[in-house]
Structure prediction request, 394 residues.
Amino acid sequence: MNPLRKLQGCNQSIWYDNLEHSMIVSGELRRMISEDGLTGVTSNPTIFEKAINGTHDYDAILDDILKRHPDFNGRNLFFEMAIQDIRAVADLLEPVYIDTGGVDGYVSLEVSPDLAHDTKGTVTEARQLWRRVARPNLMIKVPATQEGLPAIQALIADGININVTLLFSVERYKQVINAYMLGLESRVKRGQVLNNVASVASFFVSRVDQAVDKSLDHKIKSTSPTERQSLEQLKGKIAIANCRVAYDLYREQFASSRFATLRESNAQAQRLLWASTGTKNPALSDILYVSSLIGDGTVNTLPPATYRAFRDHGEPQPSLPGNVQEARDQLASLKTLGIDMDTVTAELLTQGMASFSDSFQSLLSAMESKAIAINQAAYTSAQAKLKTPFGTSS
Prediction:
C-alpha cells in the first residue's frame, strides 16, 4: 500500500506544503487526493512568491484581473490571484471535508506578514479574507506572535478556522491552546455552535535542529575529545525532543476537564501540525521528521521533496509520544551547555517572520512590475491599432 495512505491507519493526516496553479489545472492535486489520501494543503508567502515569480502560470490570470481592475496595486493583485487558487483547492478538498465531518479537507491562506505585530490589523484582514474566499474548509494562517494571540482568540470566537503558524516554543504553544479555548468559550457564552470551528497549531521542526546544531558545532570545536561524543549525540535530536514535549502538552490539555466541557458542545481539539518537516541536514534521513512524528490526532504538512520521499520509501508506524522523559532530559542537557531554548525559539520566530515578510515584499514588487508591463503592452497594442490605415488588417 502507498506509505502515505498507511499513515491514515495511524490517525495522522498528511497535508501538502505547496500550492501552484499548475497542480490545479493539470489534475495533479486531484490525483494526490484520490491516490495518496492527501487531506489538506498549506501555503505561505514564500510558497506563493516562488510559484508566481518562478513560473508564467499566473500571467494570464494577472492579465484578466488587470482588465477588470487596472488600478489594483501589488497587494490587491496578489490576494485576488491567491483567492482564486485557494477557492479551487477548497472545492477539490470539499469531499474530504464532508467525509471527515470537518476534521480534514482544509486549505490555508496566510494574513499579510507585515501584520504580524498588529492585532487589530490581523483580525480585520482575516475577516475580510474569510468573507472573500467564502469556503467553510478555509483556514486563515495567523503567526504565533504575542500580538497574534488575542487575534487568534477573537477569530475563533467569530467562528473562523485558524491555522496558527510559526510555533517553535512549547511555552508559546501553551498560550495558543489557551487562546483557542478562550475563543470557543466565548462562543458558548453567546449560544453559538462549536462543531463548525477547526484549528491547527503548526509547530515548526527542522529549523530548530538547524539553529541548535549550529550552536552545538561551535561548542564541539572547543571541547575535549571525551566530551565531544555526548554533544554529537544531541545533534539532530532536539527538534524531535521539542515536538515530543509539545505533543505531551497537547494530549494533557485536550484531555483536561476544561476541554471536556467544550467537547460536550461538540468542540474539536486543536490538532498539532508538524511544519517545516523537510530534512535540511544531508547527514540525516530525508524522512526523519515524518517517521519520528507519527502520532494519534496529528497532521504533518510535507514539502514536495519530502512528500515524494516518504511516498517512495516511508515505513509508517506510530512513533509518538515516544520517551517524553528522554526528550525532557535532552532539552535539559542544552541548558547545562548554555544553550537557552527560549532564546533559540524567540530568534527563530523573528527570523521566520522576517523571511515571510521579505518574500511577501518581493512578491508585491514583482506583481506591480508585471502589472506595469502588461498595461504597457496593452497600451502599445491599442496605439498600434489606432495607427492602422483604414481598410487594412493589422
About this structure: The chain has 17 helices and eight strands. The first helix runs from residue 3 to 6. The CA atoms of residues 51 and 357 lie 16 Å apart.
